Amino acid sequence: LSTAIYHAFSSLCYFTPVLGAIIADSWLGKFKTIIYLSIVYVIGHVIKSIGAIPSVGDNTVHIVLSMAGLVLIALGTGGIKPCVSAFGGDQFEDKHTEERRKFFSIFYMSINAGSVLSTLITPILRGDVKCFGNDCYALAFGVPAVLMMISLVVFIAGSGLYKKSPPEGNILLSVCGCIGFAVKNRWKRSKHDPKRDHWLNWAEEKYPKRLIEEIKMVLRVLVLYIPLPMFWALFDQQGSRWTLQATRMNLNILLNAFLILVFVPIFDMGVYPLIGLFNFLKKQPLWESLLQVFNLMENEVKVQIPGNDLFPDAISSYEVSKRYIHSTVLPQSLSFVFFFSARFINGHNEGLNISVGGQEFEVAPAYGITPNKSIARGEYREVKCISSQMEYIIDLGLLDFGASYSVILKTNLQGIEVFKMEDVHANNVSIAWQVPQYALITAGEVMFSITGLEFSYSQAPANMKSVLQAGWLMTVAFGNVIVLIVAEGAELQQWAEFVLFAALLVAVCIIFSIIAYFYTYVNPKQWDRNSPGING
For residue 273, what are the contacts with CB-CB under 8 A and spacing of at least 6? Predict the structure, then answer.
């Protein structure tokens, strides 16, 4: 479910750029669109922050506010995405091609610098700061709203320094009308009239030649984009499947955004110039149960279940069965006591209060059991264990990543004796195995995304810059849709999903290479000077 929600929200964030592009190119212009939709983005964060306050309504109200906030955030962030990059590109003259390329690199670096900071700071605001008696989600959502308002004020303050291209009417409506008329006209007249060089030329009777040529330019680029969602389908799993994989390892670290900050200047100043010299580029199942037996008696116990030989070996006093047993059949009654997923089991004759890693455990006497609680990894050598009459210090040792422990407390002459059982073994696969995959896919992102942003800008007609930027961003949206379909429909094991996505991406690379080979680069500025006006 978490994967589905994550990718559904990501998809929405990258479908809405089309709306932002339409508003910018057809109505408000890029500058005003950035301002107004940034305000929508801030309102979304404010609503999310209010929805995170426990005292505001019941659970239904919280869900409604959260969903409304997410929709507004998606509308705001998606709407400004194509406008910000295109607006930045507008600040450079035709002769400053190299400077514009560097701008897109710095622009992408700044985005990921923000990603690094937010990933580090937001969990601190949420977890380390307490408000309303719990984690402070309201603060975690509210701080970005304040920072966005500050950045918006700074952006507006520089208004007089910007080069602002005015909107040129409802260009998208003209594009759709032209395409529709061409298809309709070709269907009606192609049997009687001679063939034309391009199917869009069938719109010449109604639409100017310049508009038709501009649409051809855009469509040629959009055809190139068809295979690209597969890259984003794999890449955006860093926030879902890869994170889930990391939680099953023994450390969770932030890599992608940090690596982008490292790789962008390396590729900009090293890899791309080198490539240019050689002319390589043109620019657990539900039907099973998990059973484990603790022996809390003073002598060993032999466990026998009629019709099954699940526990062939005797279990010593205060020991646990040697292995987990997966069984599809469990008897309705057993003549011994066993515990599942217990954190502390109290063999003491008094109730105990135990403090571990900021968590409080109240354990009832006579084999009372506490619920499981999450504790940060660490060495816990001096843990306070307090009864009504005494205070004890117990040694729990290392509580490691991914493990689940049951701790049995037994009275002896010296006080309390500790028996620590490892119900679920600690993660023993290092997260360092993820470093190569993060490094490789980040290198791919640097070459892919920054180049794509610049390419989309450079190949778009002047009045369709934001529209084509939105087309580029929509490849991300469709990539997330692919993940949703596979994750929710295919029901594959995680390793099989990884193999599937990798194989599909290899196939897509081959297809894209073939399409790109036949693409002819266009200089829209040069074409503008040699073409008639849109009404000519």
Answer: none
Which H or E run contains 36?
helix 30-51
Token couple for 49: 């922050």
The CA-CA-CA angle for residues 458, 452, 438, to 5°, reads 160
Give per-residue pLDDT as tens, 399-451.
776 677 788 887 776 777 788 877 777 766 666 677 787 788 878 887 888 78
From the number of C-beta atoms within 10 Å of its C-beta (0-12, 13-18, 19+), residue 257 rates as buried
Residue 35, both tokens? 């301002």
Q: What is the pLDDT of residue 240?
A: 65
Please check whether residue 214 is in contact with residue 464, taking contact to mean a CB–CB distance below 8 angstroms: yes
CB-CB contact of 200 with 215 (8 Å): yes
Torsion from C-alpha of 203, 208, 214, 220, nearest 10 degrees: 20
Domain range 2-283+429-530, CATH class: mainly alpha
How far is the C-alpha of 202 from the C-alpha of 354, rounded, in Å? 80
Tokens 């190569």 found at: 436
**Domain pair 2-283+429-530 / 289-424, same fold:** no
Name the β-bridge partners of 289: 327
Largest CA distance in the chain: 106
Helix pair angle (59-90, 465-485), 10° resolution: 140
Q: Is 410 left (phi over 0), alpha (psi -120 to 50) or beta?
A: beta
| Share above pLDDT 90 across residues of the chain, in percent, rounded to a whole number | 9
Collect the ranges in the chain with pLDDT lower than 50: 252-253, 280-290, 323-342, 533-536
DSSP string, 63-97: HHHHHHHHHHHHHHHHHHHHHHHHHHHHTS-TT-H
Amino acid identity of residue 455, one-letter, is F
Q: Rounded to an integer, what is the distance from CA 218 to the centroid of its chain?
A: 29
Q: Where are the alpha helices (DSSP H) in 387-459?
A: 434-445, 451-458
CATH of domain 289-424: 2.60.40
- pLDDT tens digits along 336-384: 332 233 468 877 778 888 888 778 888 888 778 887 777 777 788 888 8
For position 252, what pLDDT does the model report?
44
Q: Where do the domains of the chain lie? A: 2-283+429-530, 289-424
Contact 203, 181 (CB under 8 A): yes
Whether 409 contacts 346, CB under 8 Å: yes
